[in-house]
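Re: that backbone. Tokens:
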């Protein structure tokens, strides 16, 4: 039986997810949408043959909506995810789960009180084929116990409204989640350092930055975040283990021999870099809704990412090593239902 989905927020990623559900994936259809801009919602609904609801709350409680996708702006996520939990409906929420750690904790508490997982957070890198291969290497012990990780997150350029803290909350947030998952370890501390600033960055923006994370088992992770790197969108990850080193594969691309050069094009658009992982992410979510077993990134993962991001932002301001305290993980989130997620 197809899952009837309602989508809250028909902006960039909302429209993208609607397109993939209706054109690329199986097992679900979008029956209702809503947006703060009713005309935008109406237009999308018309194109779908679905309907536009006037508010997110109406969409969540609508009888024919089985599951919800939240792709509105971050500050609205808490309200909609809590309403979905109250309605007992599965909800896929784009990152961030909520904009503060306290709000993430309220969601966590509501789900724990219900005693059943309903929430999945849109950390799509866990569904990237390359990261999954890397996870397999770690899980199989092929490089021994991981000791160090080197990561880089480089964008060609950012708009003038991009601020220094967004390097953490919008950009490194992906490494924060991915590395916890990859290493199956929680963070205990964070520090942010500022190298020499690029002349390409806006006056108000510190760029590049180096984020240092330490895990409970003592693994050290360095993340270079460089959002005016000019040459491309480049994601790097190298794990150093006791008996070997493993590196995230480059996205496949044509190897060119031309004009006395051997070259491979580097992507510039982040959407293209992870396009396949969004498809896998949503398809697995649809299957998990159908089988009533939500298994992807959880409210706990959203909460842990928010607490870690807060620590990084604090360190951006005071330059110190900031301790990360998550508290104990509720039993609801201790069992991981698949080996890869
Ligand atoms: P966007 O283009 O601004 O879309 C958000 C939409 O939500 C807009 O149409 C906005 O309307 C609407 N909206 C705002 N308040 C609302 C409300 N109360 N009820 C219903 N709709 C509301 O932003 P986006 O780029 O799609 O990002 C949306 C979310 O996805 C963000 O949390 C972002 O971080 C996340 N995201 C995740 C990834 C990823 O890699 N996983 C990638 C991109 C985005 P207005 O424009 O009129 O405010």
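Recovered sequence:
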């Amino acid at each position: 039986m197809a899952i009837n989905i309602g989508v809250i927020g028909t902006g960039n990623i909302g429209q993208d997810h609607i397109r993939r559900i209706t054109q690329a994936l199986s097992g679900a259809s979008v029956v209702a949408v809503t947006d703060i801009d009713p005309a935008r919602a109406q237009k999308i609904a018309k194109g779908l043959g679905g309907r536009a609801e006037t508010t997110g709350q109406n969409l969540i409680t609508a009888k024919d909506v089985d599951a919800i996708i939240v792709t509105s702006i971050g500050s609205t996520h808490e309200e909609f995810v809590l309403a979905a939990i109250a309605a007992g409906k599965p909800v896929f929420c784009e990152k961030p789960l909520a904009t503060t750690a306290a709000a993430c904790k309220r969601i966590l508490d509501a789900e724990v009180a219900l005693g059943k997982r309903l929430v999945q957070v849109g950390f799509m890198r866990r569904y990237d084929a390359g990261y999954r291969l890397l996870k397999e290497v770690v899980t199989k012990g092929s490089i021994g116990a991981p000791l160090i990780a080197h990561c880089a997150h480089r964008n060609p350029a950012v708009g003038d409204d991009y601020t220094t803290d967004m390097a953490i909350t919008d950009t490194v947030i992906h490494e924060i989640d991915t590395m916890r998952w990859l290493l199956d370890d929680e963070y205990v501390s964070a520090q942010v350092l500022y190298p020499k600033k690029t002349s390409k960055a806006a006056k108000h923006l510190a760029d590049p930055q180096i984020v240092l994370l330490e895990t409970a088992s003592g693994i050290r992770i360095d993340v270079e975040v460089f959002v005016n790197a000019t040459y491309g969108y480049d994601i790097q990850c190298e794990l150093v283990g006791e008996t070997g080193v493993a590196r995230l594969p480059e996205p496949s691309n044509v190897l060119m021999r031309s004009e006395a050069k051997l070259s491979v094009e580097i992507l510039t658009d982040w959407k293209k870099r992870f396009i396949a992982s969004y498809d896998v992410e949503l398809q697995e979510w649809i299957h998990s809704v159908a089988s009533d077993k939500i298994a992807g990134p959880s409210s706990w993962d959203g909460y842990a990412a928010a607490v870690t991001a807060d620590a990084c932002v604090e360190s951006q301001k005071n330059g110190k090593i900031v301790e990360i305290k998550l508290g104990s993980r509720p039993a609801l989130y201790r069992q991981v239902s698949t080996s890869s997620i």
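Residues 336-341 have pLDDT under 50 and may be disordered. The two ends are 25 Å apart (CA to CA).
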